[in-house]
Amino acid sequence: MAEVNPAEVSAILKRQLSGFEAEASLDEVGTVLTVGDGIANVYGLANVQYGELVQFEGGLEGIVLNLEEDNVGVVLLGPYRQVREGSVVKRTQRIASIKVGEGIVGRVVDTLGNPIDGKGAIEGETYEMPLERKAPGVIYREPVTEPLQTGIKSIDAMVPVGRGQRELVIGDRQTGKTTVCIDTILNQKEFYDAGEPVYCIYVAIGQKASTVAGIAKVLEDKGALAYTTIVAANASDPAPMQVYAPFAGAAIGEFFRDTGRPALIVFDDLSKQAVAYREVSLLLRRPPGREAYPGDVFFLHSRLLERAAKIIGNDKIAGEMNDLPDVLKDKVKGGGSLTALPLIETQAGDVSAYIPTNVISITDGQIFLTSDLFNSGVRPAINVGISVSRVGGNAQIKSMKKVAGTLKLDQAQFRELEAFAKFGSDLDPATLSVIEKGKRNVEILKQGQNDPYPVENQIAIIFAGSKNLLRDVPVDKIREFEKDYLEYLDAKHRDTLDTLKSGKLTDEVTDTLTSVAKELSAKYKNKD
Ligand SMILES: Nc1ncnc2c1ncn2[C@@H]1O[C@H](COP(=O)(O)OP(=O)(O)OP(=O)(O)O)[C@@H](O)[C@H]1O
Fold first, then answer.
1. 321 in a domain, yes or no?
2. Which of 220, 361, 516, 521 satisfies CB 3.0 to 4.6 Å to 225 for a cystine?
3. Positions of the site: Required for activity (predicted)?
């Protein structure tokens, strides 16, 4: 056996100790006092900030929502079986945020930005975008002037939406709210193909996982996932995840908005989010107010929807935007926009309930969908009489504006007279003509699911309807006529459609449309 040389041993020990430096890591930690129902009360986090992420033993994260004198209330973002009384909680010094980058497009993520579509980690560079962020101030905004084409005839013609606008989609259950928004996303394919994508974000709140999977499939099949991100907090996810899902979606939208690109976000739906927020608030023992919602539920929705904006075109001013995350400082570009389509579900058409009135007053207009229209076969079931868009009119392209100018009025007159017509008495020719035209316009405005129309096609058919060129076509043949008419125009008069698309409505164009409509409608007359 070799002899142990004490000098050698001590030399080795000395060498090892010479590199040692005592380093105490200073983590601010607290301990769990109570835990239950997705809420933990924590003692000892004296310096924690409102909205900060904290980490529990085992890695579970939570957001600090209540700051009391001797403890803080934390909502837990996941299953909390491992958390017990006495568990250690660590501050992260980070406000809740989500990692966003170009790679998030085409993915399905949860509220914290973790992919849940089984396609692996988000690729490419990512930037931390805070979930809660102050909306851009007035200096950094521009009026809404560019259209956001939804591809839905009745919306683009009568309640147009502009880029940067917030337009509420409201209606009872099963009236086609989701369909309107998904079709709008599908319609952005045209812009993606043209190399100017509108980045879409679909936020699913409190829905069945199977419904979300179905929507992802539709988007994928139609090639729309190439420019869309889905943020999902399903019905089985904890309430805080559902509360924060729209904020996560807004953070993704802001990434595109602040780098100078147009984005569109759909919140499906904010009623469910409000319910989740009520649950969290009651568990945090905040005082309940009207309908047991907490007093700040208006603030919850207004601070979220204010983040939709059209940003000023000047890069320098946009770069000084308030509350801009540091990571974006050298990437900022002006001219971007975030358009929001929040959804609200009403009960038996009652728009005067608490949450519907709140969101109606926050948004720049609303699209009402009603069950009676839906059930009578008018789909999309948009009640144009009570739907409005407060800023979208400025964003409509000129040719559409001219053609659709009288449509809303015509339809209002029609609805008024339609009631008389039910009595079956003899009507004078003027009234009859209004009614006949109105009936045809109703048919024109019908549209199938997942079938958005390019704007030029919309203008062409609405032109025919509003100029009363279809009086010879029987009402039940209008949809057939529409198909023939648009196919014929596309095949023989593509240049006319292109002129319409560019916003012009020249005499030549109107002449072409009129003669084609007359010629075709004569055929329908002869058919009978
Ligand atoms: N334009 C349309 N043409 C034909 N069917 C439609 C149309 N729009 C919606 N539908 C059908 O109506 C049903 C309800 O639509 P959708 O799920 O969009 O409504 P919703 O109001 O979002 O419902 P929910 O209350 O479940 O959120 C769906 O089965 C859909 O296929």
1. yes
2. 220
3. 387
Where is the binding site for ATP, in residues? Answer: 171-178
4 is a domain residue = no
Atom 19 of ligand 1: nearest residue by CA position: 176
CA–CA dist 391, 406 (Å, integer):
18
- CB neighbours of 147 closer than 8 A, spacing ≥ 6? 156, 160, 161, 162, 163, 392, 395, 396, 397, 455
Taking the model in full, what pTM does it have?
0.92
Total structural domains in the chain? 3
Residues 61 and 167 in one domain: no
User: Which residues contact residue 372 at a Cβ distance below 8 angstroms, ignoring those fewer than 6 apart?
Assistant: none
Catalytic residue flag (residue 141):
no
d(CA 252, CA 197) in angstroms, rounded, equals: 15
Q: Which of 109, 136, 138, 131 is nearest to 122 (CA)?
A: 109
Give residue-wise pLDDT tens across range 186-208. 999 999 999 999 999 999 999 99
- Do 310 and 213 share a domain, yes or no? yes
What is the span of the domain harbouring residue 89? 29-95
Q: What CATH number corresponds to the domain at position 48? A: 2.40.30.20
Q: Report the complex ipTM.
A: 0.97
Give the number of residues written for the chain: 528
Contact 96, 105 (CB under 8 A): no
Grade residue 422 by pLDDT with cuts at 50, 70 and 90. confident
Kindly tell me if the per-residue pLDDT of 24 is higher than 70: no
- Spatial separation of the C-alpha atoms in residues 177 and 188, rounded to whole Å: 18
Q: What average pLDDT is seen over the chain?
A: 92
* Most ligand 1 atoms within 8 A of CB, residue of 178, 184, 215 to mutate: 178
On whether both 209 and 356 belong to a single domain, the answer is: yes
Evaluate whether 501 touches 455 at the Cβ level (below 8 Å). Answer: yes
Question: Minimal CA–CA distance to 404: which of 455, 443, 338?
Answer: 455
